[in-house]
Specification:
Number of helices: 4
Order of helices and strands: EHHHEEEEEEHE
Low-confidence stretches: 1-8, 168-172
Helix content: 25-40%
Number of strands: 8
Shape: elongated
Strand content: 25-35%
Distance between the termini: 32 Å
Strand order of the largest sheet: 1-2-3-4
Radius of gyration: 21 Å
Length: 172
Amino acid sequence: MSFLSQFTLSEPLMRWREPTAYSRRDLAQRGRLILFSLVLMIPSLLIIISPEPIRARMILASFFGVIGVAIFIRVWFGAGDVVCLQQDHVSKASSRPARRTRYKDIVSCSVSHDSYRDAKFAIVAFALKKGLPAGQVTQIALPDDSSLERALHILRDKGIKIEGHDMPPNTY
């Protein structure tokens, strides 16, 4: 083994972007819509309740307004998070550093199918062992096509029990 081979990253077994419809569906849920509305209302409330130093309040209000609009644009118009099935873990790059869950920490996973505005996708939810630190990948979304079968085959090969999806043992 050469010196440089220790530092090269292994190729992922599978990599994809979560469907945009999955993110939009989450944003369209009532609780998240109310929270987003509150973030957008903060600037107006700051301007209304500020008695004297209007300039400082305007700057703060503008800051909150820009942050709220940027979050909305990123979720509504941006592509989904990048998900990778690596040799020993699942990673989801929704933030830096990417969240990771080792296969040996996943007890089982369940598959459910969903859609949002005629875009169909599958949600794979992981049942994790107790006592793990926060920030684990608990669910991922895949396009409802052959990539779902391929991902489930990889997970099954890693020893994860799959519930809620009928798949012959050797389809891939």
